[in-house]
Automatic annotation (TrEMBL), chain A:
PANTHER family given in the database record: LETHAL 2 GIANT LARVAE PROTEIN, LLGL SCRIBBLE CELL POLARITY COMPLEX COMPONENT 2
Family: Belongs to the WD repeat L(2)GL family.
Assembly: Interacts with GPSM2/LGN, PRKCI/aPKC and PARD6B/Par-6. The complex is enhanced during mitosis. Interacts with DCAF1.
Regions of compositional bias (Basic residues) in chain numbering: 658-669
PROSITE patterns in the cross-refs: WD_REPEATS_2
Record's function text: Part of a complex with GPSM2/LGN, PRKCI/aPKC and PARD6B/Par-6, which may ensure the correct organization and orientation of bipolar spindles for normal cell division. This complex plays roles in the initial phase of the establishment of epithelial cell polarity.
Region span, Disordered: 658-679, 945-970
Domain Lethal giant larvae homologue: residue ranges: 273-372
Protein name (Swiss-Prot/TrEMBL): LLGL scribble cell polarity complex component 2
WD repeat windows: 69-103, 437-451
Organism: Zapornia atra (Henderson crake)
Keyword list, A-Z: Cell cycle, Cell division, Cytoplasm, Exocytosis, Phosphoprotein, Repeat, WD repeat
Cellular component, GO, one term: cortical actin cytoskeleton
From TrEMBL, chain B:
SUPFAM superfamilies: CAD & PB1 domains, PDZ domain-like
Pfam family, one: PDZ
UniProt name for this protein: PAR6B protein
Organism: Zapornia atra (Henderson crake)
Primary subcellular site in the record, as a coarse category: other
Places the protein is found: Cell junction, Tight junction; Cell membrane; Cytoplasm
Amino acid sequence: MRRFLRPGHDPVRERLKRDLFQFNKTVEHGFPHQPSALGYSPFLRLMAIGTRSGAIKLYGAPGVEFMGLHEENNTVMQVHFIPDQGQLVTLLDDNSLHLWTLKQHGGASELREEHRFTLKGPPGSPPSATQITAVLPHSSREVLYLGTESGNIFVVELPTFTVLEDRTITSEAVLQRVSEDYCNRRSCELVEAIREHPKNPDQILIGYSRGFIALWDLQNSKVTHHFLGSQQLENLYWQRDGSKFISCHYDGSYTQWPVSSDNRQPEPLENLVPYGPFPCKAISKIYWQTTKNGVPYIIFQGGMPRASYGDRHSISVVHGSQQTAFDFTSRVIDFFIIFSSEPTAEFDDPSAMVVLAEEELVVIDLKTAGWPAVHPPYLASLHCSAITCSHHVSNIPLKLWERIISAGSKQNIHYSNMAWPIDGGTNIAPDPLQRDLLLTGHEDGTVRFWDASGVCLHLLYKLSTVRVFLTDADPNDNMNTLGEDEWPPLRKVGTFDPYSDDPRLGIQKIYLCKYSGYLAVAGTAGQVLVMELNDEDAEHVVDHAEADLLQDQEGYRWKGHEKLKTRDGPVRFEAGFQPFVLVQCQPPAVVTSLALHSEWKLVAFGTSHGFGLFDHQQKRLVFVKCTLHPSDQLALEGPLSRVKSLKKSLRQSFRRIRRSRVSSRKRRGGGGNASEVQEANARFDQDALQEMELAPVQRKIEARSAEDSFTGFVRTLYFADTFLRDSSRHCPSLWAGTNGGTVYAFCLRVPPAERRMDEPVRAEQAKEIQLMHRAPVVGILVLDGRSTPLPEPLEVAHDLSKSPDMQGSHQLLVVSEEQFKVFTLPKVSSKLKLKLTALEGCRVRKVTVANFGSCKTDDYSENDLAVLTNLGDIQIISLPFLKLQIRYPCIRKEDVSGIASCVFTKYGQGFYLISPSEFERFSLSTKWLVEPRCIVDMPEVTSNNHVHKSGMENATRKSRSLGDSGEDERKTGRLMEHALLNDEKVLKEIQCTLEGGR
Amino acid sequence: EFRRFSLERSKPGKFEEFYGLLQHVHKIPNVDVLVGYTDIHGDLLPINNDDNYHKAVSTANPLLRIFIQRKEDADYSAFGTDTMTRKKNVLSNVLRPDNHKKKPHIVISMPQDFRPVSSIIDVDILPETHRRVRLYKYGTDKPLGFYIRDGSSVRVTPHGLEKVPGIFISRLVPGGLAQSTGLLAVNDEVLEVNGIEVSGKSLDQVTDMMIANSRNLIITVRPANQRNNVVRNSRTSGSSGQSTESSLPSSTPNIANFLQGEEESDEEDIIIEESGEPQQIPKAAPTSESLESLTQIELLHESTQNGFLPSSEMSLNHSAGSISMEYEVRDPDHKSLEEDGTIITL
């Protein structure tokens, strides 16, 4: 009758399930994919990044982050904080404006969309009449000035977005007093920039794209000054005292203009082409920062000589005789300067420059000599070289943690010591309960160690395996070798470098033993490295062995890549993980599975040809087993060389296109080159799409047979101390599962510790199981007498786990892509199975044992299988009865790379890539949740004057700074002054607060 | 050459004796032969056991025409496997062999050597517009051989006609199992795979389900060509109770259970113990036993309810070598014959 009870009808179990399982996507780690806009509030000390997919992300102090998503999923073009408010306005590429507010809710702040608005012109007017090109949130916090393509400036009231039509600044009004001659050139075509006067909020500076600039008086609604620029305008910047401003231009020049009270026609003070005399690219943004010693910082984006350095993405900092052009590896989206915004401060005294490039965030310390970069605590570029694999280790012992951090700190000496300058908000999330490491393997042969304990995914240490090998890449061949007198003075900054020198170096599998500090890393060209953590630099020879996985098989020809050449003689390794053994598989195919047993000092590895076991204590190969099927031609020859070369050339041509893309020419694409490339791209995309659509979508229904290719591909390796031969004696064993549904079990004889070096490790094949459904074996697990999974090596020795039950009979769980099967041991008979594919049509992609604790009681926890299917669903399956507990949709099924990149942790969390540069973190557990929880103080509290004297607010803020591009934010103090003088409401408010305080 | 001899109708004796008699009459004592006779419909049917021998004798009126062929050069296809399908134009088909002369010479083995490769099942519980086909896959000698695609079909819903996405058979591989059965055709809509509805599942999901079940694949289709459907008249009262209802899901659980039991046996993994011989992995006693006994009950339940024996499913199994033929299943007129067990199973 049991069968007629539908699963999940047991009310006790149902209740327990609710206490154990819960699905949440908690936080996004890494760098936003395709950022498109940057904003900064010196008041909140928060930075906002908008993306092409319509996301808006706010970052402050480490742990303080907010995320919002525009419904329309349109590109965010501009982000502007409302001065001195917890509000910001975004402009999307569909010309809609959105007002976002930070609100406190349930003890934590939340980012919410409050209003949306699209500017509408009079009926019949062209769309350009209302196409917004520039936004100025006025310091009064009541209005927004919206510059348009038509040259008119509309005024809308906040927060309702009501258009104040009588206050519209038309181009006709602006041009009233300008000479006919100038007017004829349609000088008021497009508003490029609107800037508020730093001292007088009644004056705004309007720059039109043809170079005409006007200073507009809001009180009298008239132009007080106009400036007749001759070059196409890019941007404007006021100097701090409001006596001068700078305009920068399309031809790579910038001009200083005086603003005097007399009525003379102003003439430029200085007009300079910093990288002249040959034609230069546009300077798209400029800052002029005053300092105490009188030598200003002039910071501008672009302006490189068009012919020789036109492809560089640069920002130049000029300070007296010092000049550096920071050279970014990806396009610069925007940047801002953090400088003093104290009302009393006489000078800007810039402290840091924050640059948002397309692929990374770079912060430069402007206070320390040499202008070093600041190590960012978040927004790490995970994809500085493409991620090829990841591995998660939970609950790292403190000792190992400290040693990794100390190794990492030695690598970071070139970073500035400056405290992270963007420090708004307070992180109120509880401290992480344990230390977790996320290891990512990269295409360039590096392994990065990330602190994954909390909300901020933070780089601890970077390990490179390249030094073991001889590669074509010349280590001196980089852009930093430019001599002293090179011009322009380029300096490469940032870590994003997607171009791998040698794809064979790519890391495919990682295994870290957290107790012993042994690390095994395997790569694309069949290389397996075993490493040990060493706190000192060391120079030593790496023992080298070769594992011929084909053994005596004849007539095989490997057409794939060659194996990596090793470096002879001792190699110098920096402190950290240092390799001491290198095993190279022959043929040098990708390593597809890896297992390390730190207690037995054995490492097992598998490729598409077979697997091997290596004793890294004695440095001896124990055995190899070829799993090839004689008819498997594809595996023999390696990846088809023709296909590969086509792929390669495609990639190269893409790179060329990417490189030749001209830097930000915004909407109207001034460079014909850029638009051509774009057009070509569009055409290419279309062709590809068409090709895809033409191909008939049909699937062949064919039973798998033994002759299918890649059946020998070793998918999983597993060490277990279990009853393999008879039920009285248990022994070490190695299990391997292949793509063809075969499981091999080897009985191992590991000598006792005292004779470990003297006697060889022996292995004998004990069993071979062929699953008749022939689906790839993706997981093997042995359950002990209590049906709990066997502990990890050394786990028992470190008292972190109960020793396994060796009395009861053990069970073997084999997980194939299609079924879960439990067999008895040592006599293999099938006990239970769960067929996934036959019933639901989904296949297992990832499977891990996870421990789930109850959120209600501390003493209950159970082990289950966390399973990710090819449909992107996550299922939890109970052990040992293989009952489906719960299912959640997690990843879109089309997101193949997301599904492939997923890793589960031991405690029911997981990570997967949502873009090349971002991990989404999710949790299946009610107990283990890592999500941002933070508070940002609201203006109602802080906008009052007395806050300046009291509270942590001011204590932590040594310098207040002007905002993003200096266009809209003003010094708080300045505002206070203004508020006190002009705004009765604010005065009253202050009074109230003061009285309330008493 | 022709021989004419008499037999006692009331006491025909055993087939062995009859076979010996034939060999004697024809003076071919050591030659293996195939024996066939023409029944009342003019179909050529084999005689190879006591049952059909008795049947043949009882149907003779008064003459029994017997055809004898050497086994080596026998024209196996001459036997009227399509007896039932051609029922309606029986009158026009007086003698079968004429028809077969146009067809390529195909060698099929004797019925006892056959194993089922496909069958139509659950006719009585399915709506007339649907067909549930079971494909048996033995070894790897013959590919399943069909392709499926996405498409859309029109359904009658409470909101009127609606276009819904569906899965269709897009291509049959020539010489493949699917094509050789003749039970599946291009543009047939796939409704279920092994008792699980495919609606709401993607093409890839359905592909994976079919492949995972490929050893014992049961697909329910809505044939594109509805002209060959079973026409049940009221006389088929044994199963007519359900003949008009179209609630597929009601039958689903039965199928699933049935399958599970079925597959336990035909999908046993193989274990090779330390350089020993491969053997099938036995089942651990406790859990599966209860499961199987339950399955048994299910089966019995099902069969009694449906009014026919599970074994009778095999009655329509088609030979592996023959080419596409049209079928009509479980003709009521022949039902009695089936139950006698006298119809030749091919």
